[in-house]
Structures are given as structure tokens and as C-alpha cells.
Amino acid sequence: MVSKANILVVDDEPNSLFGTSQVLIDEDFNVFTAEDGKKALELMYTHPLNVIVTDEKMPDLSGMELLLEVKKNFPNLPVILLTAYGSVSMAVEALKQGAYYFFEKPIFNNIERFMTIIRQAVKTQEMEKEIDSLRKEVTEKYSFPNIVGNHPKMIDIFETIEKVSKTDATILVQGESGSGKDLIAKTIHYNSSRREKPLVTVNCGALTESLLTTELFGHKRGAFTGAVKDTIGRFQAAHEGTLVLDEISEIPVNLQKTLLRVIEDKEFERVGESNPTKVDVRIISTTNRNLKEEVAKGNFREDLYYRLSIVPIRIPPLRERVSDIPLLINHFLRKYQKGKGSIRMEPEVMEQLKTFSWPGNIRELANTIQQTVVLSKKNTITINDLPPLLFSKEDHVPMKEGKIDLSKMVSNLEKKWILSKLKEAGWNQEKAAKQLGITRKMLTNRVNKYHIKLRKDG
Q: What span, in angstroms and rounded, lies between the C-alpha atoms of 92 and 20?
């Protein structure tokens, strides 16, 4: 059931107050009334309102003065001013001060128009509330505490992005695929002074040189075949906000010179246009390559590299921050367990997941946890719940300090295999040994070796 909108009507004339209120009540609105501006202020602080309709000429506190108070404390609350003594200059001043509309009394001279304005104002306020809610949600999502990790390398990154968020310095974020470059870029934007302005991303590796030029700078109608209308580019769309150049290493060499000039001059020309357009953007670039090596190879301009990397940030791959894996796992368990109750993971599963190399980094770990949670039939995740494909990938061999540890790989797989057979046999060692094709004594030796806790005596 949709709740009714709350409208406050303010008027010092009893007949006018009653008439306006009754019209709104008949249209199924919840109506609050106030005989003067002071009472209106009291109601404003004690009731959730969607729209205020107020007379302009009132003693003590005029409609214009009430408008200023409302805008100071509730900037998204629409205020409609009513007056029997309207003038163009008064209407202009009211709109300049933030009035939603300036309407001449009596409203009964154009009741349909009045109700149309009321409904539009209600809709505007609801949209503003939704936008504020989404903005708050986004701000919370990209707040510093939501970047998971306590590895020293990550602590250094947190400190860096907290500092650079307060500046307009260009930032180069380097890291393997899936390591969290996008999260870092968005966190910087949503914690900067540009957070209320656009965040625009363009993938430099997804387009040809000509298409990327148009994508970045836009084009004039008729600039080339198929250019049927003027189109703005990503630079213009990001004006006063942040432009993220994703996979900057893939930008064609010929376009690098143009990009350098735009960054230095803070202006650009659309394709087919000779007049430059001024632009104010903060640039964050991301890449999964070592951009300095690309400079050495001649694939990337050195001057552009230094322009883009006032502050370089390197995100370590997951294999270099193994201590963060349990934190990330618990984070993703909480994220994906919705609707399934509280889900926990057996310690040996956590240890097993710490041994993998995770070539897809955080993205791959997140996908693995999500798949495991979705397919799990219980609230406790065991080794058997992990996706089988995880163990069949050659690049998922166990790691130790970033290097392959083959003996640990064999030991982990053997322990997993023994555990699965013990569970299938109801922890009966005799039965489990037969299924494994080994003697009871051999099984006992391995149980002791891997510190496997038996649930029942077999």
C-alpha cells in the first residue's frame, strides 16, 4: 500500500487556509495546517513532509522568510508560495531563493494547474529522497572501512588514498586483473570534494583509435559518416567530477599525444570542431600492466606517464597478501548469505583456500565464495562444498610466500581426500581405509600426521 503524501498548508487567513486544505484532502493527501510561519516551523521539525504550500504575506514570519528557513534546514523539501499580490519581480526572487513554484491566489481560478504542480512537487521530492538514499548508499559502500585488508601493503594503500582523496592529483592504479583497481578508483572519488559530481569510466582497450577519440572527446554532427548529431565525450560528461581511464596502457600511441595536451591545457576539441572546450576533471588511470616497463619498450609516452602518475598506487595480488584471505572470505560470506541465515566455514576449508594462488585475485575469490554459498545445502561449508573446478585448475596450486610449494599441494590434497572418505564412512576408520585402499594402520598414521580430529571412534 502506497502511503499518502504529507502536505503542510500555511496561511493566516482562515478561509483561505480551510479552502486550500480541503482541496488537497479531497485529492487524498494528508494535510497539516498552520496559521503562521512559526507554527509551520514547529510542524516542519516534528512531521515528515513532502511539500509546503504557504501564503507569502503573513505577520511575524513571511512566506519568503519561511522559504529561507526551509531551504536552510530541508533543502530538498519543495515550497510553493501563494500570493494575491503577485508581481514578476517577486516571482523571480522567490524562484531564485529556491521556491518550487509561485502561484497566484485564489487557487480556485486554476485548480487543475494547482493540483498538477502539487503532484509534480511530490514526485520531485520523492525522487530527491531516492537520490539522497542512493548517494548515501554509494558513499557508505565506497568508504575507507569497506576496503577489506590489514596486510601492511594494504595499510599503506589505505593511508595513501585517504591523503590523495583530498587533492586533485592524477593517480595511476596498477594491479593484476581482479585485484580491486575499480574499487580503489571509486573510493578515491566518493571521498573527494568531487563526490557530488559525475564519475565517468572509459575502457581504453575496448575501442579502436578513432572510436576511442570520439568516446573521449565527442564529435560534431557531420564530422564523419554516421555522425547524425552532436555528441559529448567522456571528458565533457565528467566535467567537475572524475574521469577513470581504465586500462590506460592500451591507449594507441597516436592518441597519447592528444591526451597529454588535453591534460596539460585542460581543454579539448570535439572531432570536427576547431573551438576548444574548457574542462575540469580529476583523472584516475588504471592498468594491469607495469606502465614503466611499457615506457621502456616504447609503447607508452614517458611524458604522459609522468603526467598520469603524480601518485602511483600498486595493488598487490592476493598471493602477496595471504593473511587477508580469511578477512575477505568472511566479508563475502556476510555479503552472499542473505536469505540463507548465518553461514560459517570450517577452519580446514579456510586453510585450504589460503593455499591457492588465486590468479583471478579478489574477483575470483568472491565468485568462488558466492558459488559455494548458493549451492551449499547446509549452514556450515565443508571441503566437499567447494567447487570441484577449483581443484582441477593447474594455476590453483598451493602457494607459499608467492611461490609454488609442491609438497604442501600433495599434503593438502591427500588430507582433503582422507577427510572426505572419513565423513562418507561416518568417521568409521575401518570403512574409510577400505574406500581409500589402504590399511587401518596407514590411515591412523595419516590421521595423526594431518592432525585430523575424529568425530567418532570407528
A: 24
- CA dist 396 and 66 (Å) reads 66
**Structural contact between residues 321 and 154, judged by C-beta atoms closer than 8 angstroms:** yes
For helices 361-375 and 325-336, what crossing angle results, to 10°? 50
d(CA 243, CA 170): 10
Percent over 70 (pLDDT), the chain: 90
The 10s digit of each residue's pLDDT in 112-128 is 999 999 999 999 888 88
245 vs 284: CA distance, rounded Å: 6
pLDDT of residue 140: 65
Residues 39, 51: contact at Cβ < 8 Å? no
For 216, 223, 233, the CA distances from 229, given in Å and listed in that order, are: 16, 9, 13
Place of cell 513571511: 62
Peptide bond into 106 cis (omega under 30): yes
Task: Check if the beta carbon of residue 47 is closer than 8 Å to that of residue 8.
Answer: yes
Specify which residues 271 forms β-bridges with. 219
- Map out the domains of the chain with their CATH numbers: 6-138 (3.40.50.2300), 147-316 (3.40.50.300), 320-449 (1.10.8.60)
| Cell 557531420 sits on residue | 222
Q: Which of 238, 138, 150, 248 is nearest to 187 (CA)?
A: 138
pLDDT tens-digit map of 1-22: 356 899 999 999 999 999 999 9
For every residue of 368-391, DSSP letters joined together read HHHHHHHH-SSSEE-GGGS-THHH
pTM of the model as a whole: 0.63
What grid cell was written down for 395? 594455476
